[in-house]
Amino acid sequence: MTEMPPKLAEIVEDFASAPREVVLEMLLEFSDAVPPLPAALAGHDGMEQVPECQTQFFLKAEVQPDATVQTWFDCPPEAPTTRAFAGILAEGLAGSSATEILAVPDDLYARMGLAQAISPLRIRGGTAILGRLKRQIAEQIA
């Protein structure tokens, strides 16, 4: 089995080893790390909504010719926890191959220790985001 992309593994370790009160601050920092959508995706054209999230969340994954994956996420700033999931994935998966992303464990957020800091409903939303991202990638390489 392929290991987690190195940057994502580093983020997971940082969260897993941080005290609960610091975890919330770290999540807020990642909520600011979501890159803006390109004009072509304005209005969420071609993006998939993740209905498991309590707030409107859209994503798109595109496998590039070199097998790396480009990701786009959109979530309102008023939903910092959900935006943090996007920021973690955007930063942690940047430059990763389709194979590396498909190997990311489905229990990513549990491994980060987030269950002690945020609600199970939010964890479920984050897990759905990862699941939909991986499904889009798997469909493109099939």
Automatic annotation (TrEMBL):
Entry protein name: Cysteine desufuration protein SufE
Annotated PANTHER family: SUFE-LIKE PROTEIN 2, CHLOROPLASTIC, SULFUR ACCEPTOR PROTEIN CSDE
Domain Fe-S metabolism associated stretches: 13-136
Source organism phylogeny: Bacteria, Bacillati, Actinomycetota, Actinomycetes, Micromonosporales
Listed Pfam families: SufE (PF02657)
Similarity-based family: Belongs to the SufE family.
